[in-house]
Amino acid sequence: MSFALYKSELRTFGIRKDSELSPEIYDEIMDKVLLKRAKLRCMNLLKSRDYTEYQLVTKLKQGLYPEEIINAAVAYVISFGYVDDIRFAKSYIEYAGQTKSKRQIENVLLRKGISKENIRQAYAQCSEENGIAEEEELIKKLLEKKHFDRQNATYEECQKMVGFLYRKGFVLDEIYKVVGSYCSLGQ
Questions:
Q1: 47, 110, 119: which is closest to 82 by C-alpha?
Q2: Among residues of the chain, what percentage have pLDDT more than 70?
Q3: Residue ranges of the domains in the chain?
């Protein structure tokens, strides 16, 4: 197992190159030095913005902390409610729900390490509070933003817009409901 120590800590514990650590020194380093430092690192990261559990674990791994220290430090901040994946997902859904499709939001949250179950719970909480726009409304907003003239659009322009919206993560049924109501896509 490897971990990073500062030069002053090496001197404090009398650690020399190629020497073995006694079990007592190893336990003291793990419990008093690394665990404390990992907890402080988590708290410092959380001062500036919210992180998911997965993101915190990744940051601590980059800092060369041992797995057991990472788990203990993350459990510590979770125990105080500083990290809550459902709250994180809910905030992101409320923020991005006015401009992004449900599929886009889910993909972003999955990449941030939030489970599908937590995403589902966050969506349920948001829909109870009416914090997200309907997909149909979002499609209409995007069409307006793109200056899409639905009534005078050619078949090719409609297809191009359908492709654009599909790549944005909208469901084809919703796209055809909005775009198809003005364009004759069945040709």
A1: 47
A2: 92
A3: 7-79, 85-128, 135-179
